[in-house]
Amino acid sequence: MNANARGDFSNIPVLDVSALYGDDQDAIDAVANTLRGYLENIGFLYVVGHPIAQANIEAVREASRAFFALPEEDKLALKIDKNFRGYLPFAGSTIVTSSVATISKPNQSESIFFMHEVDADDPRAQAGRPLQGPNQWPDEAKLPDFRQTIERYVDEMTVLSRKMVGAISTALGLPAHSLDRHFDEPTTFLRLLHYPTQPAEEGLFGSAPHTDYGFITLLAQDDVGGLEVKNKNGDWVPAPPIPNSFVMNVGDILARWSNDVFVSTPHRVINRSGRERYSQPFFFDPSMEAIIEALPVCVPAGEQPKYAPIEYGEYLMERIDKNYHYRKKLAAEGAA
């Protein structure tokens, strides 16, 4: 890694990942090699060349618009539950765990979360394991095909995410499937977000400056814009929408896993476009029970890892419990 290059960027690069869907190893290695440079120095890139149809991406966006246009009582009927699935009302989170800014005002957005589907009678749910339970779905009569649209998209995004896990392994000089066992039961989140136009107010953001918690994020944007990424000079670099692309970024757990070879870069959303903004980030993370410890290939000879081993589920729950207002209420009710 060129230490001087880390964080020195003025735009977000584009990577064609079509080779990851083939069997030409030289082409796969070339993609992985380029990917490594982007993840070391920027932590962000646009992913293109994937086979996910633009129509399927747009279908999720239209489903999102339809959901957020529902009457408030219909949305609140799906209010987010203890398993982190459902509707989070406007201004329902404040990123107090941000390592890049002191945040005191809630994010100016509303959202609905869909995680990996776990039936109510699944042993994981029956045992009360954290974040294990069924998703909450809108009334089919009011939003026909909503669930089918979301589940198709999650399936496609999961395939793409697994391709990227393989490319990341290869980029680190590991066998392509070396990390797969940590994703046997991946923790996935599809978050549909609605950002109203926000007033110009100090310290107010659609999404306050932060780094993501997990492994990787793959974000589909609409055409409004507003996402910005912070470079080492402290400048906020726009990540404007590119059709049929996903903005991919490193999360904190991947940075930790790689012993900071890969960088989890601060980013934010400010929507002063005069239009409503809709986005759909997909978070692909390890199994809740996965133990994350620095990969030996990422620890220089004679040095110790920067981070102690940690169970991913414990790490994740600490952040969720601190940043989401409803979690504090649940904790208070449980202590009463």
Q: What's the quick description here?
A:
This protein has helices spanning 25-41, 54-68, 72-76, 123-126, 146-171, 252-257, 312-323, 325-335, and strands at 14-16, 44-48, 86-88, 110-115, 187-195, 207-210, 216-221, 227-230, 236-238, 246-250, 267-269, 277-285, 291-292, 310-311.
How would you characterize this protein structure?
The structure is a single chain. The chain is α+β, with helices and mostly antiparallel strands and 336 residues long. The chain has one domain: B-lactam Antibiotic, Isopenicillin N Synthase, Chain (Jelly Rolls, Sandwich), CATH 2.60.120.330. Helices cover 29% and strands 19% of the residues. The protein has helices at 25-41, 54-68, 72-76, 123-126, 146-171, 252-257, 312-323, 325-335; strands at 14-16, 44-48, 86-88, 110-115, 187-195, 207-210, 216-221, 227-230, 236-238, 246-250, 267-269, 277-285, 291-292, 310-311. Strands 1-2-10-7-12-5-4-3 form an eight-stranded mixed beta sheet. Strands 6-11-8-9 form a four-stranded antiparallel beta sheet, with no helix packed on it. Helix 1 links the parallel strand 1 and strand 2 (44-48). The longest helix has 26 residues, at 146-171. The radius of gyration is 19 Å and the shape is globular.
